[in-house]
Design a protein that fits this description.
There is one protein chain. The protein is mainly α. It has one domain. Helix content is about 75%, strand content about 0%. About 5% of the residues are buried. It comes from Liquorilactobacillus nagelii. This is Flagellar protein FliT.
């Protein structure tokens, strides 16, 4: 009987991990959508923890799903950071002359995010 429940829990865990990955892959590249996905995934992870989720208990297939989820999160966060840097660059471009903008960015040590050598 215990083995039956363990199989059910493993199946449910795999389904939840697949749902999380599917949501991440459906991201439409907007910040509000990312926030919604992160919130929903956080709730799903809380549900997994209630089921006794532990990385040590994952089988190989589940570990691969977790790796894909981590990769998707990293891709989304990188895109958000790039968009934020681009918006900041555009605001600075509109606000300052080119020389003042370079000085401002050098002062805050954020030059590495933006390439001004065009």
């Amino acid at each position: 009987m215990d083995n039956y429940y363990q199989k059910k829990l493993n199946q449910q865990r795999t389904e939840i991990l697949k749902e999380i990955l599917q949501r991440l892959q459906m991201w439409d590249k907007t910040l509000p959508q990312a926030e919604l996905i992160f919130k929903q995934n956080k709730q799903q992870i809380t549900d997994l923890e209630k089921l006794g989720f532990s990385l040590n208990k994952l089988n190989h297939a589940d570990r691969e799903l977790v790796k894909e989820i981590v990769t998707a999160y990293q891709r989304i966060l990188t895109k958000i950071r790039q968009d934020k840097a681009e918006v900041k660059r555009q605001v600075l471009e509109l606000t300052y002359s080119r020389g003042a903008m370079k000085a401002y960015l050098n002062c805050n040590r954020q030059r590495s995010l933006i390439n001004f050598d065009f």
